Amino acid sequence: MIWREENMSSRIRDLPVVVVTFAIIGLILFPFFWMIISSLKPSTDLLTRELQLIGRQLTLENYRGILEAGFFRFVLNSVFMCTTATIVCVCFISSPAAYAISRYHFPGRNSILAMVGFTQMFPWVILVTPVFMMFWALRLVNSYLGLIIVYIAITVPFSIYMLLGYFETIPKVLDEAAVVDGCSPLGVIFRVILPISLPGLVATSAYTFAVTWNEFVFALTLMTQTEKKTVPVGVANFLGQYTTDWGVVMAASVVATVPTVIF
């Protein structure tokens, strides 16, 4: 009886915390709910002065509009470039670099770590002009390869730090055992370390994909041909100078949000 009373009193004490938590979650999720509902409303319901959570009628015309506008071409462009950049960044650059820094103590190790961290201390926008001039000279403007290189460059530093912290938790005896069995340094990385580092690789891949998927400035600058633009630039194209079809914008925003929600 006493235990039940204590359990009930503890639940009552926790009730305000639970209510506040759900209220915060509701505030966070409400914009997404509003975006989805708005994408299903006709323009007449969106521009009314009357507050309507769910309109008088729901329609898929806005999604038909982005389909006819070729928006899914932008989705394919983003999926291809972001997936390629994520695989190259995480598996072939950040993982070997993080492994080398975590396992070997060589001259300049601390300087390299400091330099990697320093690259995250200034905004990427200051690099737009020099990158554009360099890529123009190399004929990488309006090139998938050029934007993939940029995506890799801006995500590698933080990816190294993420994987470095994970690799340092893996016992070095596993490396030594693999070397005794005849593995080369690359064999140790790809056959031993990476398979048991799957949670860290997934987290780093999710970060890398999300950053590249949402990147706007470089995609806008380096991709001037319509058929090669990415999702963020495609969404911005629906914003007119004088008028904007907000139903179409909301539909495009819903489609643009799906991959990041999945990751």
UniProtKB/TrEMBL annotation:
SUPFAM superfamilies: MetI-like. Gene3D superfamilies: MetI-like. Keywords: Cell membrane, Membrane, Transmembrane, Transmembrane helix, Transport. The chain crosses the membrane at residues 12-37, 74-100, 112-138, 144-164. GO terms for cellular component: plasma membrane. GO terms for biological process: transmembrane transport. Coiled coil: none annotated. It is a multi-pass membrane protein. Its main location: membrane. The keyword Transmembrane helix applies. Residues 76-263 form the ABC transmembrane type-1 domain. PROSITE patterns: ABC_TM1. It holds the Pfam family BPD_transp_1. It is found in: Cell membrane. PANTHER family: INNER MEMBRANE ABC TRANSPORTER PERMEASE PROTEIN YCJP, MALTOSE TRANSPORT SYSTEM PERMEASE-RELATED. Belongs to the binding-protein-dependent transport system permease family. This is Carbohydrate ABC transporter permease. It comes from Aerophobetes bacterium.
